[in-house]
Amino acid sequence: MLSEKIPEWIKAEALQSEEPVYVYDKDKIIQICNNFKNITYPDTAVHFATMANCNSEFLKIIKNHGLNVFVNSQLHLDEVKSAGFSGKQIIFTASSISREMMHKVHDENIYVNLDSLSQLDYWFENFPGKPAGIRCNIGNKAFTPKSGRAGIFIGENSRLGLSIEEIKSIKNKKLINGLHIYIGTDITDIDYFLGYYRILLELAKDFPDLEYIDFGGGFGIDDTGKQNFDFEVYGKSVTKLMTDFSETKGRMVKLIIEPGRILGGQSGYFICHTTDVKFRSNIQFIGVNACSAQFPRPLLYPDDSFHPVWILDKNGLIKNENKIRTKINGCSTYSRDFLSHDALLPKAGIGDFIILGNAGAYCASMYTTFLGFEKPKEIFI
Ligand SMILES: Cc1ncc(COP(=O)(O)O)c(C=O)c1O
After folding, report:
1. What confidence score (pLDDT) does residue 17 get?
2. Rounded to an integer, what distance in angstroms lies between the CA atom of residue 259 and that of residue 99?
3. Which of 63, 217, 240, 273 would bridge with 258, disulfide CB 3.0–4.6 Å?
4. pLDDT higher than 80, residue 156
5. What is the DSSP secondary structure assignment for residue 151, as one 8-state letter?
6. How does strand 353-356 pair with strand 21-24?
7. What is the DSSP string of 22-90?
8. pTM higher than 0.85
9. Count of CB atoms within 10 A of residue 320's CB?
10. Which CA distances in Å does 88 have to 45, 46, 70, 278?
11. Which residue puts its alpha carbon closest to atom 16 of ligand 1?
C-alpha cells in the first residue's frame, strides 16, 4: 500500500526536484518498532540489523523507540556509536572476524557472537574469563532448511556458524554467555521460526551460564502487502518458549531478536522520473533518471526482490488505467541496469514519477559507486 503521505509529499516537494530520492514514512518505522516492543516476555531486547539501513536519522528513530542494534563491521560500529548506542545495546556478529577486530569488540564491552572454534580459542586465550556468544548452525537431518536460498544461511551447505558437533565439543561451556541463530530472510511462516528455536533451546540446556538466546532476524514482508507478519502470534509463541526455558534454568534468560528488513522495508520509497519509454515484444520499458547502482536490490537479487511500483503523473496524481507488462530500466549503459524486472503498469509519459515501494531496507544501504551515480538523498517525513 502506498503511504498517503507520499503523493502529498510529491505535490509539495518533488515537483521541483530533479534527482532520485529515498523518502521514508516515519510513522511506519515507529509502528513496526512498537510491534516488536509489544512482545510480552519481560527480558526482551530488539536489536535492529543495521546492514538493512544505517542512515543516522533512521538509527535515531529506532533508538527513540527503545530498540538496540546489531552490527557486523567497523564502519557500522562507528555509526551506531555516533548515534548514541553503547555497551550491551550493541551486538557484533560476523564471520572470520580478524584478530584486530576481536580486540576492538572486546574493548567496547559489547555482545559478540563468534563464528568458529578457532575464534573461540583465540578469544579465551586472549581474554581469559571473559564470556562470548556463538553463532549456531543447527540445520540437521530432523529439521532441514527450506528449499532455495535458505540453505545458504543455515544447514550443512552454509558456511556460517558452528555445527552441532562443534558446539557440543566446546570444553568451557560455562564461558558461553549467548547462543545465536539466523535461519534466513523474509520468512512469514511462524512455525518455521519456532522449529529452529526449539532445536536451539534444546542445545542451550548444555550451557549453564547463558545470559541470552539470540533468535536473529528473518521476519518477512509479504510481497502483496495483504498478509503482513503476524506479530501477535509470534510474540505469544516466543514468550511461551522463553518462559518455559527460563523455568528450566531457574532464572530469567534474556531474549534477543535482530529484525532487519521488516523494520524499515515498507516505510521506504524510491522516487525517480521517467526519462524514456520504449516497447520490445509488447513489453513496456520505462527508462528513469536513476540507476540500479542507486537502487541495487533487483540487481543483487534478481529473482527475490519484489518491489511494488506506482506511477504518478506530472501533477502528482496516481495513474491506474490499462496496465501492461513493464520493465523499469536505469539510464546507464549497463545491460543489467533494471530497477524492476516485471511489473504491471499503465503507459508512462516522460516526466511521470515512478515510485518503488518496500525500499526502506537493503536498498539505500546497498548503494554502490559502480557506474558513477550519486548516492540518493534520504528524507524522513
Ligand atoms: C545475523 C543476522 N541477523 C539479522 C539479520 C537481519 O535479517 P532480516 O533482514 O532478514 O531480518 C541478518 C541479515 O543478514 C543477519 O545476518
Report:
1. 67
2. 27
3. 217
4. no
5. G
6. unpaired
7. EEE-HHHHHHHHHHHHT---SSEEEEEETTS---HHHHHHHHHTT-EEEE-SHHHHHHHHHTT--GGGE
8. yes
9. 10
10. 10, 12, 10, 54
11. 182
Mean pLDDT of 329-333: 98
Strand 44-49 versus strand 254-257 pairing type = parallel
* Domain edges within the chain: 5-23+265-380, 86-259
**CATH dotted code for 5-23+265-380:** 2.40.37.10
- Identify the residue with better confidence: 152 or 181: 181
In this predicted structure, the answer to whether residue 112 has a pLDDT above a threshold of 70 is yes
Task: Evaluate: CB of 20 within 6 angstroms of ligand 1.
Answer: no
Instruction: Tell me, in angstroms, the distance from the centre of ligand 1 to residue 373's CA.
Output: 27
Name the residue of 47, 50, 51 whose CB sits within 8 Å of the most ligand 1 atoms, as the mutation to test its pocket. 51
Cell numbers 503482513: residue: 228
The matching CATH number, chosen from 1.10.3720.10, 3.30.720.120, 3.20.20.10, 3.90.330.10, for 86-259 is 3.20.20.10
3-state secondary structure of 98: coil
State the cell numbers at 37. Answer: 516492543
